[in-house]
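In the current project phase, the collection of sequences with tokenised folds has grown. One resulting record follows, to show the layout:
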Amino acid sequence: MNRAPVLFFNVLVIATCGLIYELLAGTLASYVLGDSVTQFSLIIGLYLFALGIGSWLSRFVESGLARCFVEVELGVALLGGLSAPALFLSFPRVSHFQAVLYPLVIAIGTLVGLEIPLLMRILKDHLDFKELVSRVLTFDYIGALAASLLFPLLLVPKLGLMRTSLLFGILNALVGLWATWLLKPLIPGSVNGMRLRAFFVIAILLAAFVKADRLTSIAEEDQFGEKVLYARSTPYQRIVLTRGRAGLNLFLNSHHQFNAVDEYRYHEALAHPAMLASDSPRRVLILGGGDGLALREVLKYSTVESVTLVDIDPEMTTLAKNFAPLAELNRFAFDDPRVRTVNQDAMIWIEQIAEMFDAVIIDFPDPNNFALGKLYSTRFFNLLQTRLSPEAAVSIQCTSPLASRLSYWCILRTMEAAGFIVKPYHAAVPSFGVWGFALAKLKTFDPPSRSPEGLRFLDDATLAGLFSLPADLAPVEVSINRLDNQALVRYYETESKR
């Protein structure tokens, strides 16, 4: 029997599964640790290094190549398949998460690195060397492409991280089981023991796959310390809503976005300065803010005729409209006929439209990766200028000027470099501490001094106090954030580690 075509299919499966495990580890690391650029770089580097270790170790396998291949395949299935559940469940329980993460990546990479050389040696009797190398590498790279396309576009949105890990573990185990028949003539002695182990591994992974939702809930409830009301992975982020004694909480990729007990402080400070500085705005733009809480504040103004809210994730805006606890908190803002929702990348959308706006509220997540960092760049702020009416004002959240001082001033200096006149301000939000904002216009202006009536946090005195910065929030020297340097992301990653 010519085993070559089937074994080349195994190469494809091995390459796809191996890269899926790597992508899972990198994604989980960035979710729970932040610092996504560094984490993905480390995971990729460690995985490639471990592939080399596995390839080097394969030279010590002198005999029993087929048996060794099956055993390694089952090892990859069990370790890789359980990697996401293990990482999810260990994060809230261990003090040094990296001590679990990095050895796991190295172990998986080493086993995957063993597989390809073993298969090549098994195949050497069927093909000449030139043909063997070209075909193995071709299927290896095709597998890498398949994994890189399937992971963000299909697997994570449809299955979630945990089920994706378990599914590919099952696939690895099935390949190992199949190999006990395919390679039986090359395996001396009985293969019944290997087949029993394969069935055992498949059974474990199938049971975990069925219970994946419960395992995820346990892990997230341990991580956040509260009951999980809603959790879903989308192509853009992991959305988790929890409820504890303090009320509703939103987490995006494990980063806390608000606590219902004090979110009004943040959103009043974000929205009202720009609305007041814009002189009776009629057309308002909200960038980010898919939870609808900044939208709630904007809709308090009777002068507003239309509000366009741009958030990249349709799952987030749909949740804010239809999920009762969140819709009640934003006072059903998305049902207001003045509101139009756009689910698109804000930078691309700004570049494509021709509309003009009288006030802009920017509520992007913190700049913890390059995709978000671009939204705080000179390029983005230059594009934004072209969409502003002469009296328009812009307010933007800028991270904490106390805990992330370099990041805060980088955003302000970048806006100034793009041509804005910028006024820094801050507010105390107990869930987050001192939080920073900026108010900007295209001409010289004074900060607003009169607050609307009926707000929970802002009054005239409090509004004036927002723009008085203490000495420990004073400006520091920073670089301008441009698309080609992403200085802000580097500042934020350094400061977030503290």
